[in-house]
Design brief:
This protein is mostly beta strands and 344 residues long. The protein contains 2 helices and 22 strands.
Length: 344
């Protein structure tokens, strides 16, 4: 990883993973001016960065290099220096020979010092008890009885979402494309499929036990047992820790999408960014760009019962006007970290 960082403790940070490396954007609490450090790990695809505030703070990076392969990097000084694992993640269960990509990093709970989780492709879950120095496979998930029937999505057979119950250290969930949501209530000793009510429009059986394609799964720290997911076939909500899912797609211009976000203080406020233009029972994914080529973030403030097109100040915005504001804001924020273009 490239040395050097302009971030300091107490800064507001944006961690940005790109196909050209990682960048750390930092500013004071006013957020008027941002400093940019990077690229860290130039030439690598950084699928995910995560900040762990425990024990003085650690930045984790899921790094995939076309020659050197996948690895997890960590920095205890906000990107000035980076460390590699003493024992990198490796499959020991026989589920796969090698790790193709590292996808997602999730720091453990407050009462779990040193614990970090990692999701990889082919789908697997790994755990570290020492802040990412030594990694061990959670073999119980790799050896799930349904494993030989798991099928990849367009992005591969990847475990991309790791959700920890903030109130129960024995309970967690993972999202796998294109397999579905799995959950454990015994600290990973056993796993069950949790996909009731979630559609798989691309399969003959539209409501299978597994085979769905979640794109992102999240929970809110203030409301244990509440889950949301943006799926290949809609947006869903569960108020039963994943036992049953409610389709809350109605009001959106498309069922398909990847982006899902939750308000940090309000578990009923969620954000999505629809892609393609599929409703009813049509299968999405053929047009992997924003619906109608308009960058429109939709917001619900009542747990998905309705949606609003969101303006920068939070008010309802006309689609064309909202498109302009969002694009202008993104262009201004990211102009200084534009990746090199072909031939540069």
């Amino acid at each position: 990883m490239t040395q050097g960082s302009s971030a300091t403790k107490g800064d507001v940070m944006v961690l940005l993973g790109t196909r050209k490396g990682a960048f750390i954007l930092s500013s004071g609490k006013s957020r008027k001016n941002r400093q940019v450090s990077g690229p860290h790990s130039p030439g690598s695809e950084v699928f995910h960065l995560s900040y762990d505030h425990r024990e003085g703070g650690t930045v984790f990076a899921a790094v995939n290099h076309m020659i050197w392969g996948p690895t997890v990097q960590r920095s205890h000084d906000l990107g000035t220096t980076w460390l590699s694992p003493q024992e990198p993640p490796r499959f020991t269960s026989g589920a796969a020979e090698t790790i193709d990509q590292v996808w997602h990093l999730e720091p453990g709970r407050e009462g779990e010092p040193g614990v970090v989780y990692l999701g990889v492709a082919p789908a697997g879950l790994f755990k570290s008890d020492d802040y990412g120095s030594i990694w061990q496979e959670v073999a119980s998930l790799s050896k799930h009885p349904s494993r030989d029937q798991w099928q990849p999505g367009l992005g591969g057979l990847c475990l991309h979402s790791i959700v920890l119950d903030p109130a129960d250290a024995s309970r967690m969930w993972v999202g796998i494309s294109a397999v579905g949501v799995f959950g454990t209530t015994d600290s990973g000793e056993s796993w069950e499929t949790l996909n009731q009510g979630v559609r798989a429009d691309f399969l003959p059986d539209r409501f299978p036990d597994f085979g769905q394609c979640p794109h992102k799964v999240l929970t809110h720290p203030s409301k244990p047992g509440l889950l949301y997911q943006q799926n290949h076939c809609g947006v869903y909500k569960s108020e039963s820790a994943g036992e049953e899912w409610q389709d809350i797609t109605e009001g959106l211009p498309s069922r398909f999408g990847f982006v899902l976000g939750l308000h940090s203080q309000d578990p009923d406020t969620l954000f999505v960014l629809p892609e393609d233009q599929v409703l009813g029972e049509d299968v999405g994914g053929g047009q992997r760009y924003v619906t109608e080529a308009k960058f429109r973030v939709y917001r619900s403030q009542n747990g998905g019962r309705d949606r609003q097109k969101r303006r920068r100040d939070g008010s309802v915005e006309h689609p064309q006007r909202g498109l302009h504001l969002v694009q202008r804001q993104i262009t201004k924020k990211l102009a200084s970290v534009r990746p090199p273009q072909s031939g540069e």
